[in-house]
Design a protein that fits this description.
- By secondary structure, this protein is of the alpha+beta class.
- The protein folds into two domains: 27-160, no CATH class; 218-419.
- 39% of the residues lie in helices and 22% in strands.
- It has twelve helices and 19 strands.
- It has helices spanning 2-24, 29-40, 74-80, 101-111, 163-182, 224-227, 230-239, 245-268, 306-311, 315-320, 349-371, 398-419; strands at 52-60, 65-68, 81-84, 87-93, 119-126, 132-135, 142-146, 188-190, 195-199, 204-209, 220-223, 270-272, 280-284, 290-296, 302-305, 326-327, 330-335, 383-385, 388-394.
- It has a nine-stranded antiparallel sheet.
- Strand 5 and strand 6 (132-135) form a beta hairpin.
- Helix 8 (245-268) packs parallel to helix 11 (349-371).
- The N and C termini lie far apart (77 Å).
């Protein structure tokens, strides 16, 4: 009887320990809120916000390509790379919705005479598309992971994650990170992508994105498409004492996004080729008040200005980037807040047309302020295709020549100061 009681007490203790550890490493409330917005305030596809087991294959690290930045959080690294019997392995995540691409990985393992057992270690949560927010209950690491899947939410269905795209993401993540380290961005916050893994034979990659600025903070990240959600968009406007959600989000999403993308172009020479609301989030404080900053993610979805990168001395990036997205002679700017989405009841076509015009007014004003290029040199027609508004500015004339010369001189000066272990702040 005593032995039975002792055994029962032991199991109670183990159960308590498991609950204690789970409570310690429960999903951060702000991350959970992001999951809720992604899955429940998405007009294209309502998805589950429940936690699920994330399956993975265990692959010897020597068989997997990897590019991990030194700044990558050790807990994230340890969630994905582990040692077993003196051999390092990587956990190759299987998207829970995928019924196709992981089978290639399974066949690859079998062709190498390796174990293709599916294991579980990470927990995960759906987003609006193919990426999953995952957590490691052992280390408390919380991050986003993107792998190939033939099934996902919204209008984005079969999405293989090819290696070239992953390499583009890593190169540009380092580039943007270094720009931010030199001088913090004024209007935007970036979601870093400090790591990728790849299987060359399959042309498949796994991309890691951090949740920096969200975990443990008092900020809330509202997906752009959630601001455009009939119910959520109206509720947040009302909480901010606005009876007009169209006017509220024109002021607190459309205009700040214009400033953020103008700053992105000025500071980095990047412009989005798919600037829809899947790629942007609105930073709110703990009381759901917009801070004026836009969170930007997925830099692989970008055009690169050949002239800008030449001035920065980074032709190594443009030479190896997906060439159809390296553009010259023009700076291409565009926005498509409602692309891939449905209009909320409080926004109509005529109003959306005005949003496009106001976006470019704000964009040109901000780019001119930052660059010193007169507004007259930024006048270009605005075209519309479906729900995208586009414009392109010709990179010719003495003002643009001076702009690129200034970029070149600042880059050279920064390199000189760095060689003396100095840090400079540039305008």
């Amino acid at each position: 009887m005593k032995a039975h009681q002792s055994l029962r007490n032991f199991f109670y203790l183990i159960s308590f320990f498991i609950l204690f550890i789970s409570a310690c490493f429960a999903l951060d409330p702000n991350v959970q809120e992001l999951v809720n917005y992604e899955t429940k305030a998405n007009r294209v596809a309502v998805r589950s916000n429940e936690r699920v087991d994330i399956q993975h294959y265990e692959i010897p690290l020597e068989l997997v390509g990897k590019d991990l930045a030194d700044r990558m959080d050790k807990n994230i690294r340890d969630a994905l790379i582990f040692n077993k019997n003196g051999v390092e392995y990587v956990r190759w995540v299987i998207n829970p919705e995928d019924t196709l691409w992981h089978l290639e990985v399974e066949e690859f393992l079998r062709s190498k005479g390796l174990d293709a057992t599916k294991h579980t270690h990470l927990k995960g949560y759906m987003t609006a598309s193919r990426s999953y927010i995952v957590e490691d209950l052992r280390t408390g690491a919380q991050f986003s992971i993107k792998v190939s899947t033939n099934m996902t939410g919204g209008n984005w269905r079969d999405k293989k994650q090819p290696i070239q795209d992953a390499k583009d993401i890593r190169v540009i993540a380092d580039y943007v990170y270094n720009e931010q380290q030199a001088k913090p961005f004024e209007h935007m916050i970036t979601m870093d992508e400090p790591g990728i893994f790849s299987i060359e034979a399959l042309d498949q990659a796994m991309v890691i994105r951090t949740l920096d600025g969200l975990v443990g903070s008092k900020k809330i990240y509202l997906p752009g498409f959630s601001a455009m959600h009939t119910r959520v968009g109206r509720q947040i406007a009302l909480l901010n004492r606005s009876q007009d959600p169209e006017a509220f989000w024109r002021e607190h999403y459309n205009k700040p996004l214009a400033k953020a993308l103008a700053e992105l172009a000025y500071r980095t020479g990047l412009t989005y080729d798919s600037p829809h609301s899947q790629n942007f989030l609105i930073e709110l404080d703990q009381f759901l008040r917009p801070t004026g900053k836009i969170v930007i993610r997925d830099f692989g979805d970008s055009y690169l200005s050949k002239e800008y990168f030449a001035a920065k001395g980074r032709t190594d990036i443009t030479d190896n980037w997906t060439q159809k997205n390296v553009k010259s002679r023009y700076l291409r700017a565009s926005v498509g807040i409602m692309h891939g989405n449905k209009f909320p009841t409080w926004l109509n076509e005529a109003q959306y047309e005005n949003w496009g015009e106001e976006f470019f007014q704000e964009y040109k004003k901000e780019f001119s302020r930052l660059s010193g290029i007169p507004d007259a040199k930024l006048r270009a027609p605005i075209t519309r295709k479906h729900k995208y508004f586009k414009s392109k500015f010709k990179l010719q004339g003495t003002q643009w020549d001076k702009f690129f010369e200034d970029i070149k001189l600042k880059t050279q000066l920064r390199a000189t100061l760095n060689s003396f272990n100095c840090r400079a702040i540039f305008n």
